Amino acid sequence: QVQLVESGGGLVQAGGSLRLSCAHSGNRFSINAMGWYRQAPGKQRELVASISSTGSTNYADFVKGRFTISRDNAKNTLYLQMNSLKPDDTAVYYCNPVLRLGSGAYQPFGSWGQGTQVTVSS
To answer: Which CA distances in Å does 65 have to 17, 18, 52, 88?
Structure first.
């Protein structure tokens, strides 16, 4: 059973930055596409960004130009650099391996970790 451990969240003022990390315990990290998701109170979990095994990236419109997803396969670690943070970015952030479906949508297929809380004050 792969374990995913997210870290790096915290409280930051609007306009600030945070870097999230996701440690993947399995031996298939390098061949899996990975995604960062977030869930705000009272809202559904949503995909923020994804990265393929070869490094191709995709971003939700609401974070384009502000967030950067990256991976270090040697360290089995996924990252999310978040700049120009807004109060609307407040959420619990999760990582998960993903499958890209024929429709172009992404389907998470791992077990969810505990996530890391990001709170942006105005």
So the answer is: 13, 15, 19, 15
